[in-house]
Design brief:
The chain has about 550 residues and is α/β, with parallel strands linked by helices. The strands form 5 sheets. It has a 10-stranded mixed β-sheet with strand order 7-8-6-5-9-3-10-15-4-16, with helices on both faces. Strands 17-23-22-21-20-19-18 form a 7-stranded antiparallel β-sheet. It has a two-stranded antiparallel sheet with strand order 1-2. A hairpin with a 4-residue loop joins β22 (about 515-530) and β23 (about 535). The longest helix is centred in the middle third of the chain and has 25 residues, at about 275-300. It is globular.
Length: about 550
């Protein structure tokens, strides 16, 4: 008989009756290629096929099953903060908001909004799985760790740029594995906390990243973001696929399972820069990470894998009106030139800064196969930030920057098109491997995807209740108590007194002090300056 839905399959073996239970989901891996429009996937697939004719498909191809419409709370086009936040919490939020409830915008809100919840931190599926199910959690990315997408999973802020709030929250939120960029953003307090909790903490240390025997680790590379894959020093920086494999290796030792988010962070950055080479090669690097996840899930049998971008970017097209008769161009005409590029726009600029102007044409040709015209050569020399230019400052064009000029020159030698250097609002692709019969297919919203993750993890109704339990307003938790909020050195402190007992609470950490003794919470405390409110667990009332 064929197993369908949640029914049990009756098997008759050797005269005995055996019931095969419906498969369950123990682990969840969410892979997000940031800012990846479907055209970027197509470009990567064609590029791969052009250079390796036997490789017709990407690793994610067999699992593509639908599309997701992403949006902010009050706008159809979102940035990474509110869109990934919705995947994690079930609520679309404002541009720049990290896992935080948005203020109401009645004229423009796309979904109903409760004004009383404005600025409240929202429990994420990763936090909930850790708190209620003791699952391990992990983050892998190529940007810096407090950047919007990883931050959305395990921190809370109405301002994605407030790394000084977000970074310590992430360090104190008991994430088992963190691998990516951002060495300069993990301060000494956070590092010492992690070491005291038994983590391996490694900065630009590939050897110990690979050989560490423990299961809890933070491994960070480069001061902020990691390199584009095409520029990556393979000795100094691991690939996204290797980082994904290492995270799965560590997390899968937890008997309760794990939730892992893997981000191909800089596909989005390349799209902003209209850098088609970096878009394609970082997408292919991301697809290799997808391959690692799918291989593990196929062998494991209890792992859900979801691949979904958070939004589109740049309006990339294969073919552009700048190329006459582009519709009939051969694969060589479309992909030959870009396949000669050996570096990203950023990588080429770094080389130019270390190249005498007399060698500029040669370096560009060696790295791109492009023979610069005299006009293009002059455009580079005129850039105000080209520190090896042979022109005086007076001879250069004020405001002309290498980033835009180099990107434009490379773009002019290909037949790809861009409509913008910003985000776009089209639906994004969905790829899913689900070991159960409940695979999500068709067209859905970002809210629907969160509900799918909730159901898969058995968290159907828990997120809202957990939000209210762990992120309650201090004015409600300590109503009727004696408390004060003071600020010293820009750090707000909530002090609650009752008889001889004193509870001292500061934000962006899981450490509170009760009568001078440190107590570790299972979540972080968040302070919002806009309403002078601490958001914290309700059970703290019982201490005082």
């Amino acid at each position: 008989m064929k197993r369908t839905g949640s029914f049990l399959l009756l098997l008759l073996l050797a005269g005995s009756v055996v019931f095969a239970q419906e498969k369950s989901i123990k682990n969840v891996i969410i892979l997000i290629p940031d800012g990846t429009s479907l055209s970027a996937v197509s470009a990567a697939r064609w590029y791969q096929r052009y250079n390796n004719p036997e490789k017709i498909h990407l690793n994610l191809d067999p699992y593509i099953c639908g599309t997701i419409l992403t949006y902010s709370s009050n706008a159809p086009i979102g940035d990474s903060a509110p869109t990934t936040s919705c995947y994690m919490t079930g609520y679309p939020s404002r541009a720049g908001y990290v896992a935080t409830y948005p203020p109401a915008d009645p004229e423009n809100d796309i979904v109903p909004n409760d004004p009383g919840r404005a600025f409240q931190p929202l429990m994420t599926v990763m936090e909930a799985a850790r708190i209620t199910q003791s699952k391990a959690t992990g983050l892998v990315f190529t940007c810096e760790f407090p950047h919007a997408t990883p931050a959305d999973c395990m921190s809370h802020s109405y301002n994605r740029g407030k790394y000084e709030w977000i970074a310590p929250q992430m360090a104190h939120n008991n994430i088992d594995v963190v691998i990516g960029g951002g060495v300069s953003l993990l301060n000494d307090e956070s590092k010492n906390y992690l070491l005291n909790q038994g983590y391996g903490v490694f900065f630009n240390d590939v050897k110990n990243f690979r050989n560490f025997a423990g299961n809890k680790m933070w491994a960070l590379f480069r001061d902020k973001d990691m390199s584009y894959d095409i520029d990556r020093d393979t000795v100094a920086e691991p690939s996204l696929a290797e980082m994904t494999a290492k995270a799965i290796e560590k997390l899968s030792t937890n008997p309760n399972g794990f939730v892992l988010m893997v981000e191909g962070s800089k596909i989005d950055w390349a799209a902003h820069a209209n850098d088609v080479t970096a878009i394609i090669t970082d997408m292919l690097a991301f697809d290799k990470a997808c391959g690692v996840a799918f291989d593990f899930a196929e062998a494991n049998g209890e792992t859900l894998v979801v691949v979904v971008p958070d939004h589109g970017n740049s309006g990339l097209s294969i073919g552009s009106s700048k190329c006459p008769n582009y519709g009939g161009m051969t694969k060589n005409e479309l992909f030959g030139q870009v396949s000669q590029f050996k570096t990203s726009v950023d990588g080429l600029i770094n080389r130019l800064h270390n190249t005498d102007a007399s060698q500029l044409k040669k370096v560009v040709y060696d790295l791109t196969g492009i023979s610069l015209t005299d006009d293009e050569y002059k455009q580079l020399l005129q850039c105000s930030d080209y520190n090896r230019s042979s022109l005086s400052n007076d001879e250069r064009m004020k405001g002309s920057k290498l980033t835009k000029v180099v990107a434009k020159i490379l773009d002019n030698h290909t037949c790809f098109g861009f409509t913008t250097g910003g985000h776009t609002g089209e639906e994004v692709f969905l790829a899913v491997l689900d070991p159960t019969d409940n695979r999500l297919t068709g067209n859905h919203t970002n809210i629907d995807l969160n509900h799918y993750l909730r159901r898969s993890l058995g968290l159907q109704s828990d997120l809202e209740a957990l939000t209210d339990e762990y992120f309650a307003k201090h004015t409600e938790v300590f109503a009727g108590q004696s408390y004060t909020v003071t600020t010293k050195n820009d750090v707000p402190t909530l002090e609650v007194k009752n008889n001889n007992n004193v509870l001292e609470i500061q934000p962006n950490t899981n450490i509170v002090k009760f009568n001078g003794k440190e107590i570790l919470l299972n979540s972080v405390v968040v302070y919002v300056d806009k309403n002078n409110t601490f958001y914290l667990p309700k059970f703290l009332k019982g201490l005082i």
